[in-house]
Amino acid sequence: MSALYIHIPFCKSKCHYCNFFSTVSLKYKSELVDSILIELEQKKNYLSNNNLDTIYFGGGTPSILSNLEISSIFKKIHEIYTVNSDCEITFEANPDDISKEKLILYKELGINRLSIGIQSFNDKILAQLNRNHSAQEAINAVILAKEYGFNNMNIDLIYGIPGLTESIWKEELEKFMEFDIPHLSAYALTVEPKTALNYLINKNKYPNLNEDESITHFNYLISYLNDHKYNQYEISNFSIEGFESKHNSNYWKNNEYLGIGPSANSYNVVSRQWNSSSIKNYINEINDKTNYFGIEFLTLDEQFNEYVMLGLRTNWGIDLEIINSRFGQNYLEYLIEYFSKNLIKFDKKGNIVVLSKNYRMLADGIASDIFK
Known about the structure:
Strand content: 15-25%
Largest sheet: 9 strands, mixed
Oligomer: single chain
CATH superfamily of the largest domain: Aldolase class I
CATH class of the largest domain: Alpha Beta
CATH architecture of the largest domain: Alpha-Beta Barrel
Shape: globular
Order of helices and strands: EHEHEHEHHEHEHHEEHEEEHEHEHHEEH
Helix content: 40-55%
Number of helices: 14
């Protein structure tokens, strides 16, 4: 499966919690788009298959690009790759960027999946997070997108926020359900270094997060969505059957992908590349044809650890046949010995080992314990 990711690092404002590479300065926007076109050309042979199954525009806020800028990137993609007729093309957008004109263009370009960064339908919560839109704008954006035929849609919500009571969280999920949206990504608020949220908490200007509240929100989320026939196919991702994100599933299944743009990562199973996290450096190095990305080659242990970490987060789990064929009998025996010695509950389906849902929130810690 061939997957292409384009990183657009521009935002109208910086959310307090965000640690993704992004900037509110649009100074280099035009030059960056030109550099993305160059990088697409330079890395056209990175993927083993030139037929694209998924394309994903993330950020930052891709919807901040002009129609001409978006169109130029799509033109270059089609020059280099064969975009399969059933290719999933996802475009991230903020509610305040969505308009009739943009939705018409997205349809013309072949974009068939929107991911809208709503985070909350509550104005007080949105203000806390320093989001740039209102609850009503979020509602209007979803309604407008559906009017223009975007039925394959994801929205993001955040829980574990101080002030997000159980009743407000219930209202958030009920509002989500009103719109018949087939996919939800729900994330616990976390405090990352060098974010405004971390600064505010350290200066006692924002309350500390309450882990127990976050767990309560998470458990209610799982129960509520399960009752409404949404499948938790990855720790933070829920969908109606058939509407799982193909692009993100490609990551979680440990398959190859190409990342284009500043700070973007690429992975071909045996090595990982990462681009410069400075927009100016990225542009200069791309145009000077100097080495604008770092690279590391993964040892067999590191490849094994990656596969285990990703598998434990999902319904697809760890395939013991893949362990045996890709990594060898020693790794298979090591895993089986770990499973037999620990009290953690695993559900075994044939040769697939899946972490039971009660332990999903602990998946990363369990994976690190398994790491070689």
